[in-house]
Amino acid sequence: MPSHAVLTVDQKRAAEKAAMDGGISEWELMQRAGEGAADWVARMAGGRSVCVLCGPGNNGGDGYVIAESLRKRGLAVSVVAPKEPGSETSRNAREYYEGEVSDGALPEACVYVDCLFGYGLSRKVEGDFACLLAGLRDASGFKIAIDVPSSIVSDTGELLGPEVGYDLTLALGAWKRAHVMMPAIARMGVKRLVDIGIELPDHAPRMSLPPRLMPPAADAHKYRRGLLAIVAGEMLGAPLLSAEAAMRSGAGYVKLLSEHSHPDAPAELVIDGAPLPAALEDTRIGAVLVGPGLGRREESREKLAAALSARKPAVLDADALHLLDPSLLENADRSMIAVTSHEGELAALCETFEVRGADKIARAQELHAATGMTVLAKGPDSVLAGAEGLRFFTRGSSWLSAAGTGDVLAGIAASRLAVHGEPQRALEEAVWLHHEAARLAGPAFTAGQLAHAVKPAMETYL
Ligand SMILES: NC(=O)C1=CN([C@@H]2O[C@H](COP(=O)(O)OP(=O)(O)OC[C@H]3O[C@@H](n4cnc5c(N)ncnc54)[C@H](O)[C@@H]3O)[C@@H](O)[C@H]2O)[C@@H](O)CC1
Ligand SMILES: Nc1ncnc2c1ncn2[C@@H]1O[C@H](COP(=O)(O)OP(=O)(O)O)[C@@H](O)[C@H]1O
Ligand SMILES: [K+]
């Protein structure tokens, strides 16, 4: 089974070194990588001409192996290499390739294979390399990136050269962080992993796997299935959106704790107007959601304080993340708190808890370490940091970039938390259900339509 590990360059190098210490040569690994990638390239080319761009390192070495493999299969192959190979293994690969190599401009081809730089990219791409990549950007053929697109930094996903849009990216041996982070993922097209038979670390951060949800037990009743209490605030719409999603995500009973009247609330939603601390004393409550529509006034802070001191599993979102501070966490059970923060909310939390991570992954990880809360850093490149380690997700529909979709996500997460009480599992399930609901809702949905699509999304994972 392929590994789902997502590695840093140091971790990947260590895994390759361990394989080499175990007796597999670097040349053997390169041949496995090149042949595995060539299978994909040949499939995509379907007999059409292929141009391979080869750089000076081992990514270029992979390119020569790919080119020779395609040549042997009878395809018309051209190779462009602005610089001679610099490493011993890539020189082997250059000798292994029996065709012509040019150091000039990009020739016409139907399929382009980019092997200029892989995870060894260490500085801005300039000169001949930048010209070739600019040519590739403007070319009309099918574009395949080998391991990592050549302008992309493997550990961060940041761009250090011309912005080429690829149709296919083939990760060699393991996923790298660039395969899950913005801005890289928006340029990679379809991503596939080529197995090269090396052992990867067991406990490395990894891709999240689709959840397997269970129907209610035969003897279930509404409380045992999970009672979710949603704390309402100043704005009435947001908690209702969360409730619409929560009622479709597994909880048997969803209550809105609110002193307001809600003429637009659905009939299934119970409105409880009791004073908040008393309402939260109900021992049947399995989880609390606080934040959507909460507001940021003193009363809002008091509501958050009451929700946290109830010491129940809780999802914190939106305004709650701006109000949260170390003193509010003093009375809380931090291990039971799940946080759903977008970029701005994550920045606010990092400031409050003096977390200074260099990038989104580090910020999520350090915030979890500093507070004990399970942190979902949302966005097209969602990152989940919790007691079970880091999890990454494939990108959801870009139509999710609409107001209110975060309230829907928070409602799903809180509902899942009410079902089983495990924050990391609840957030992981919520991201999958949110993405699947968005896929099923198609283009141009509203947050309300997204909340309704959570029901068919549940069916996908049951
Ligand atoms: N080490 C191994 O066991 C394997 C490595 N493989 C391949 O090897 C790649 C990594 O190889 P390397 O570590 O040699 O690194 P790369 O081939 O990614 O690039 C490093 C080379 O490019 C130069 N360079 C970096 N940035 C540059 C820039 N902006 N402008 C000009 N030159 C620049 C460096 O000086 C060095 O010569 C992987 O991505 C993968 O494709 C695969 O063959 C599988 C096995
Ligand atoms: N471009 C995008 N691609 C994929 N998912 C996105 C994109 N933009 C936003 N999302 C997702 O949509 C949701 C937006 O949440 P948020 O910003 O809190 O919205 P709101 O506060 O209006 O409800 C998050 O789950 C986020 O991951
Ligand atoms: K590359």
Automatic annotation (TrEMBL):
Residues 12-204 form the YjeF N-terminal domain. (6S)-NADPHX binds at residues 58-62, 118-124, 147, 238, 293, 342, 407. Its EC number is 4.2.1.136, 5.1.99.6. It catalyses: (6R)-NADHX = (6S)-NADHX; (6R)-NADPHX = (6S)-NADPHX; (6S)-NADPHX + ADP = AMP + phosphate + NADPH + H(+); (6S)-NADHX + ADP = AMP + phosphate + NADH + H(+). Transmembrane segments: none annotated. Binds 1 potassium ion per subunit. Keywords: ATP-binding, Isomerase, Lyase, Metal-binding, Multifunctional enzyme, NAD, NADP, Nucleotide-binding, Potassium. InterPro entries: CARKD, Nnr, Ribokinase-like, YjeF_N_dom, YjeF_N_dom_sf. K(+) binds at N59, D114, S150. Residues 204-461 form the YjeF C-terminal domain. AMP binds at K378, G379, P380, D381, S382, G406. Signal peptide: none annotated. Its cofactor is Mg(2+); K(+). Pfam families: Carb_kinase, YjeF_N. GO terms for molecular function: NAD(P)HX epimerase activity. Bifunctional enzyme that catalyzes the epimerization of the S- and R-forms of NAD(P)HX and the dehydration of the S-form of NAD(P)HX at the expense of ADP, which is converted to AMP. This allows the repair of both epimers of NAD(P)HX, a damaged form of NAD(P)H that is a result of enzymatic or heat-dependent hydration. In the N-terminal section; belongs to the NnrE/AIBP family. In the C-terminal section; belongs to the NnrD/CARKD family. Homotetramer. HAMAP family: NADHX_dehydratase, NADHX_epimerase. NCBIfam families: yjeF_nterm. This is Bifunctional NAD(P)H-hydrate repair enzyme. The gene is nnrE.
